[in-house]
Amino acid sequence: MKLNERLRQAEATTGRTADDGKPPKDPLDSIRERAQIALFAKVGARLNDASISEEDLAVFVSDELRKVLDGETAPLSGDERKMLAQQLRDDLLGYGPVQPLLDDPSLTEIMVNGTDPIYIERAGKIVETDIRFASATHLRRVIDRIVARVGRRIDESSPMVDARLPDGSRVNAIIPPLAVDGAVLTIRLFAKDPFTMDDLVGIGTLSRPTADFLKACIEGRLNVIVSGGTGTGKTTLLNALTSFIPEDQRIITIEDAVELQLQQKHTIRLEARPPNVEGRGQVSIRDLVRNALRMRPDRIIVGESRSGEALDMLQAMNTGHEGSLSTVHANSPRDAVARLETMVLMAGVELPDKAVREQVASALHLFVHLTRMPDGSRKVTNITEVVGMEGPTVTLQDVYEFDYRAEDDEGRVGALRPTGIRPQFTDKLEALGHELPANLFGDPAERRRALIKAKR
Asked: Is the Cβ–Cβ distance between 244 and 215 less than 8 Å?
């Protein structure tokens, strides 16, 4: 007998009926709501008790959950009971309806818009699911649990927060009154196993020759900026690039919310801190960059430069901390230069434009630019050298650029091609023992012929 029929029989026995004039609720939803209320009444106070370990709390919740389901009057099959138990356990100890999505390795983004259906991103495409939160209170409870576990808060006085999950996934939440239609939760998922450079080559983000070139650049201690728009894979590529840093170097990573997963043993991870309830105690990325200079770093890696810390980062690169890396939001390498200039001015230091550009030109060696393609794939579309200054302008030249008309070795549309220009820093790399093949940067004459043909 199906659950609907069994529940109708139970209602007839108890005299309970569905609300008049309204479509009947899914029977499992009704049972879930009753069990959830009863369960929270029994264990709610213990959920935030710091004296109880996660293991003890899980055992206590399982015991109480079994008692609640045993006391349920509606008959449940074994599968239904198992499913309800897992959902209720996720509500209490996990992240409710998004917990099974977090466990799906094929997803890269989870977007919760109030109590509307949850959206996900898979293979670069946004898809609507049939999963949703039961109520605004349910969603708010999950948001509170996420931010509390990393020592942050969200309330009417501070209605926006950036946080992270234990696996490093990035979380952003914004609640009413700023979010007019209900709380919004966005989770950027990262692979449990970080992508290696071989993985990125395998999925076509860049080619093997360019990966070998970037390996030589990182080992040769060039200062590199990874640029690109939102969701183009900047952090993923930055993490892969850091794998080329030698084990004998001291690395300090600085992030707003910890995301990088470096494999080197001698790594110090620093994380910015927002202000407390009284508006005090804030530690910005800029504060951490300045402090990192006193910690004897070989390399400083700033997860994302977005404000005045860009000035301190450039100064660090100019004062002996070569081989440092960061990411910048920008639509092209040229735009990335302009953004860096703007961020330096945000530091509040009165510098003439020429001095700012000289800082950028002398500190940086290379931009690696990523673009999200229409099919959802992410690809490196420019590897650009910072040549220097020409008058008041920072001069750039593409070492590799994306040819949208070509095909790569796997037959995929578009490929990263050398421009025929040999970077000025290759002498430094070769002096350090990095042998660069003669054909790594292409044939300049062939490149000129291709440009002339394209113009025609």
From this structure: yes
Same domain, 217 and 87: no
What is the reported pLDDT for 332?
Answer: 95
* Same-domain check for residues 376 and 254: yes
CA distance 57 to 3: 31
What is the CATH classification number for the domain harbouring 239? Answer: 3.40.50.300
The domain total for the chain is 3
CA distance 403 to 418: 10
- C-alpha 241/C-alpha 214 separation (Å) is 8
Domain hosting residue 303, numbered range: 197-455
- Give the integer Cα–Cα distance in Å for 426 and 399: 11
pLDDT single digits (tens) 201-227: 998 899 999 999 999 999 999 999 999
Q: Where are the beta strands (DSSP E) in 123-241?
A: 125-128, 160-164, 170-174, 184-188, 224-228
Compute CA 310 distance to the chain's CA centroid, rounded to the nearest angstrom: 20
| Mean pLDDT score of the chain | 82
| CATH at 173 | 3.30.450.370
| Domain limit, last residue, from 59, 93, 127 | 93
Residue 339 structure tokens:
């953004």
pTM for the complete prediction?
Answer: 0.77
- Helix, strand, coil % in the chain, rounded to nearest 5: 40, 20, 40
Q: Which residues on adjacent β-strands are paired with residue 226?
A: 327, 368
Domain boundary among 43, 58, 93: 93
Q: Which two tokens stand for residue 166?
A: 């234990």
Token digits for 319?
């004062």
Say if residues 127 and 119 touch (Cβ distance below 8 Å).
yes
Same domain, 186 and 242: no
116 and 183 both lie in a single domain: yes
6 secondary structure, DSSP code: H
Same domain, 273 and 308: yes
d(CA 367, CA 329): 12
End-to-end Cα distance, the chain: 75
Q: Map tokens 């005090």 to a residue.
A: 280
- Sign of the CA dihedral running 2, 25, 98, 91: negative
Both 267 and 356 in one domain: the answer is yes
- Convert the pLDDT of each residue in 42-60 to its tens digit: 666 565 555 566 666 666 6
